[in-house]
Amino acid sequence: MTHEPEIHHSNTKEKLAYVTWLSSTVVGEDSEKLDEDVYFIGTRILVWQLLHYKKTKTSGIDVIVVVTPDVSESRRERLRKDGAIVRPIEFVHGKNDGWLHPKESRWNDIMSKLRVWEMTEYSRILMLDGDMILLHPLDGIFNDPAAQIMESQRNVSNPEDEPEIPDDFLLASIGEVAGADHDYPPDWEHGLKKHGYFCAGFFMLRPNKQIFNYYTALLDIENRFNPKYMEQNLLNYAHRWNGPMPWKELAYTWNIRSVNDNDIEKGVASMHEKWWEEPLSGSKKVKDIFTSMRHQMEGYYQARDELQGLAN
Asked: CB under 8 Å, gap of 24 or more: what pairs does 176-180 form?
């Protein structure tokens, strides 16, 4: 696959965006130690790669960080200075969601990611977790055959206690990789974990308030999905392959979790990896990329801040 930045679509007025999510349940509460906040630094690396790094930057697509009410103003201001559009959002809770208990407490507020479906000024959005390292531009993903609007399958019904679904939708993603020992690109026979189960750290969507209301209604139906992985399991239920809104598979060359040397050599566009940890593959090459991206990002912004200070 090539990673060409040029986007071809029939609607010339289409507005696209890259979006990532930030909450204090992930970043922590100490607003004075931004240089030690690994998730915040990861978000800054992602923003820098999308907006400024010549090898991976977008050709004019908006880059947005949605932030929950408890994200400090110091973090918001730094992200604005970095060039991101910072969009405050409210938490998402159901009326009867006391049964939702995630595997880890840092995911307590993660249902607020569903607010992205309310951003209807955008026609399509690529949602990215903050722990992403880019190796090639991502703009071409909007041309992926799976990244197009789909009609809901009216011949397949949802349970009667669920609200009406929209006539069309978009949910395109990639399956979870089972581990670092996988083929490139991985497939359901060689490297992917659970057939039909996608990763909510990297997916394409079409904003739609009706589908947002559908998702939030599911929060009040106890045990309709397993809350262990919160929004990921909600979305996998809503877009199950035997349901009326089945998700589509993006090319696995766009993003891989648990990246190994072969993935990099073959040209994977982005890595879903925690830059501050040792890669699961144990690859020194992967770890060196993590370190380099952090230092390049910080050096870029330090130089730019100093120039702006001199200009003022």
From this structure: 176/257, 177/256, 177/257, 177/258, 179/258, 179/280, 180/258, 180/259, 180/260, 180/279, 180/280, 180/281, 180/282
**Burial annotation 169-204 (CB, 10 A radius, 16+ → b, else e):** bbbbbbbbbeebebebbbeeeebbeeeebbbbbbbb
pTM: 0.92
Q: Give me the sheet containing 198-205, strands edge to edge.
A: 85-88, 62-67, 16-22, 124-128, 198-205, 171-175, 248-249
What are the backbone dihedrals phi and psi of residue 19, each rounded to the nearest 5 degrees, phi first? -130, 135
- Cβ atoms of 183 and 269 within 8 Å: the answer is no
Query: What distance in Å separates the CA atoms of residue 270 and residue 253, rounded to the nearest whole number?
Result: 8
- Could you count the other beta carbons within 10 Å of the beta carbon of residue 65? 24
Cα separation, 285 vs 188, in Å, equals 26
Q: Which long-range contacts (CB under 8 A, 24 or more apart) does 303-311 make?
A: 305/81
H or E stretch covering 286: helix 284-311
The total of other beta-carbon atoms located within 10 Å of residue 39's CB is 20
pLDDT in tens, the chain (312 residues): 434 334 444 445 799 999 999 998 665 555 668 888 999 999 999 999 999 999 999 999 999 999 999 999 999 999 999 999 999 999 988 777 775 665 555 545 888 999 999 999 999 999 999 999 999 999 999 999 999 999 999 999 999 999 999 999 999 999 989 999 999 999 999 899 999 999 999 999 999 999 999 999 999 898 888 877 779 999 999 999 999 999 999 999 999 999 999 999 999 999 999 999 999 999 999 999 999 999 999 999 999 999 887 775
Residue 192: strand, helix, or coil:
strand
- As a whole number of angstroms, the distance between CA 266 and CA 243 comes to 34
Question: Which CATH code is given to the segment(s) 16-311?
Answer: 3.90.550.10
C-alpha span between 211 and 69 (Å, rounded): 23
